[in-house]
Each structure stands twice: as structure tokens, then as C-alpha cells.
Design brief:
The complex is a heterodimer.
Chain A lengths: L3 E5 L7 H12 L5 E6 L4 H12 L2 E7 L4 E6 L3
Parallel strand pairs in A: 1-2
Antiparallel strand pairs in A: 2-4, 3-4
Chain B lengths: L5 E5 L4 H16 L4 E5 L21 H8 L5 H11 L2 E6 H7 L13 E3 L1 H8 L3 E4 L1
Parallel strand pairs in B: 1-2, 1-5, 2-3, 3-4
Helix pairs in contact in B: 1-3
Classes of the chains: A alpha+beta, B alpha/beta.
């Protein structure tokens, strides 16, 4: 069963949330997920592009109360 | 197709330019793009070992915003790019000579080696060169 690690990057500016996700992905197993919470407007556009470029999988993007939640699955 | 290497010639000592260089280098490096940075001229002064933010930076209105709002530190961004991606940092040999510095005068665990401009430009023929 996959595990999910949550990162609260609310208040961090670009490229902080992205770098935190990448660091977290390095530490988890293939099939596990990272969820990031971000108030940075760029994250909601930049993170899906990065995920697509390097070959991971974006599971979901949700707009919450004043922030975005994005979930990435490690695929390699 | 392999990702085209990015070469950044960082000359300016202005905080805002060092910041965008750090952001660009880090994001490109973690996006599976090899990145090579040559730090020279006034820029190298901000990489002096032991210098601490905010005193290591000089800049304008946006520098103040970056510091006040605690944006990711420029020097730390280069470090993250090295740790998480394919980023190579060079110190300009001419700048070191003029300052009478060696690699021990620079931020620890950040620079790979000292390099001359000729070699850097030669290598950059195979990639995209950005000057800041």
C-alpha cells in the first residue's frame, strides 16, 4: 500500500515548494506520494509541468481555502 | 533527445540578478538539464565564505522584498541545485587572482573547481549561454 508524505509549503516563495517536493521525492519509494500545500501561485502551474517533464505522475490538484494541494506519485 | 545544457555566466553583484541566476540554475538542474555556472566579477563577492545574508547582498527595491519576505536564499538555491540535480559551479580564475583568493575563500561545499573563461565558453558552444 502506498504511503503519502505531506509538505506544508504555505508561505514559501518560488521555487521553494517545488524544491521541497523534489527533495521529498528523493526520499520515498516508487509508488509512494508527496502532497504539497502551497500558497505560491506558480506552484499550481510549474509543478505539473515539472512532473510531466521528469516522468512522475500528478495524481490530483485541489484548490483549498487560500492554498493549493497537489499530489505527486513517484514513478521512477 | 537529451536536454540542452545551460551555461550561466554570473557577473553581477546585484542581489536580484544573483537570485534569478540561483532560481534558474536550481530549477533547470532538477529538471534533468545539466547546468554549469561560472561566477565572476562582483558576483563572486557574494559567495565569500562566512558572509551571511542579508549582508552578503547589495540590491534595490526587489532585494529588500526578497529579504523581508524571506524568499529562498540565492546561495542556498545553488546548493539545492547541486544536491538535487545536475549543477556544476565554477569560480572564475581571473576573479580569484584579482582578489588574491583561492577556493578556500568561497562558500563551502558549493564550488566544484576554478575555471577560466576560455574553457567555459568552449564548453558552452554545446549548450545555451545566459549572462547575468
Amino acid at each position: 500500500m502506498s504511503q503519502r508524505k505531506t509538505i506544508d509549503a504555505r508561505g514559501a516563495f518560488c521555487p521553494g515548494p517545488l524544491m521541497e517536493v523534489i527533495a521529498a521525492l528523493k526520499l520515498i519509494e516508487i509508488g509512494d506520494e508527496v502532497e504539497v500545500w502551497s500558497t505560491d501561485q506558480g506552484t499550481v502551474k510549474d509543478l505539473p509541468i515539472w512532473v510531466d517533464k521528469v516522468g512522475h505522475k500528478l495524481i490530483e490538484t485541489n484548490e483549498c481555502d487560500g492554498y493549493w494541494s497537489l499530489v505527486v506519485e513517484k514513478t521512477k | 533527445m537529451a536536454n540542452q545544457p545551460l551555461f550561466i555566466l554570473l557577473c553581477s553583484g546585484t542581489h536580484e540578478k544573483i537570485q534569478i541566476a540561483g532560481m534558474t540554475a536550481a530549477v533547470a538542474a532538477v529538471s534533468e538539464r545539466p547546468v554549469y555556472v561560472l561566477v565572476t566579477m562582483n558576483a563572486i563577492l557574494s559567495f565569500k565564505k562566512g558572509a551571511e545574508s542579508p549582508r552578503r547582498y547589495t540590491g534595490g527595491a526587489f532585494s529588500k522584498l526578497l529579504l523581508d519576505k524571506k524568499a529562498p536564499d540565492a546561495i542556498e538555491l545553488f546548493g539545492q541545485g547541486k544536491m538535487l540535480g545536475d549543477l556544476t559551479m565554477y569560480a572564475c580564475t581571473m576573479a580569484l587572482d584579482l582578489l588574491e583568493w583561492d577556493m578556500n575563500n568561497l562558500t563551502e561545499d558549493l564550488f566544484d573547481e576554478a575555471l577560466g573563461l576560455t574553457k567555459f565558453l568552449s564548453d558552452a558552444e554545446d549548450g545555451q549561454l545566459m549572462t547575468l
